[in-house]
Amino acid sequence: MKLVRHNKAGRAYLLNENEAASLRSLLQQFPITANVPAQISKTDADPEAMEREKLLNESLAEHRKELKKQATNLLAAKKFKEVQKSYLLTLTPEEHEILLQILNEIRVGSWRVLGEPEDLEPEVPPQSEREWVFYNLMELAGYFEASLLRALDGDLQPGHE
Amino acid sequence: MPSVLEPIAIPKRTVKRETRSKDRLAPTYYVICWNDPVNLMVYVTHVFMKLFGWERQKAEKHMLEVHEKGKSVLVREGAEKAEFYVHQLQHYKLQATMEPAE
Q1: pTM
Q2: CATH class of the domain comprising B23-100
Q3: Which single residue of A30, B38, B39, B62 could bond B72 by disulfide (Cβ 3.0 to 4.6 Å)?
Q4: Element spanning A6, H or E
Q5: Does B58 touch chain A (CB under 8 A)?
């Protein structure tokens, strides 16, 4: 994944065929897990915590729906333009942020399905095909996240992978 | 000892008005981010910069605190704003909670 252009309007990345197929596959699969109830507090000190938690979970569900819509938009043919066996992905700053959130939701969701392991690179390989799938999803989402963040930080200058 | 009895002045009963502190009027909350092994460190830094408008140095300081100490108090705010930040942090899938400040 190569950053080839960036300006105020956004950033353009060149992806090889495998990368483009993998990223499109991640977007198609989103969301990969069911909603997991979120906590708003770890103590019982706030008497309004229950009501706040309800609102939080509604907000998360709504946000997830919005991300799903955005994932569909990002899959549109015009977003991935074929250029000599590679694909040019152009993202506005807003789309950049949305893509990061989608990828991280996939990464965190996969981690939860795997039972929230402390060690993300276990010495014993995953035992089932299902585990392999989720470890791979987690890795893949992390790879694209790291690439996007390097580009934002300026570490990834145009023309460098 | 005085020979003349002094008039007994009954002290006026003063009604002690309770001065309500600012905290009591508007309780404040700590917004806390908790460690997990899955969120990338660069991602956490990015989210802090984005949401709080912090410089990289401050965002990294809090990210490292989360990573090394298990949690970091990010801000202290009134209920509404604290709730807003928790929602935003959780939209990014960071483990964030709000806890009463006192």
Answers
A1: 0.86
A2: alpha beta
A3: B62
A4: strand A2-7
A5: no
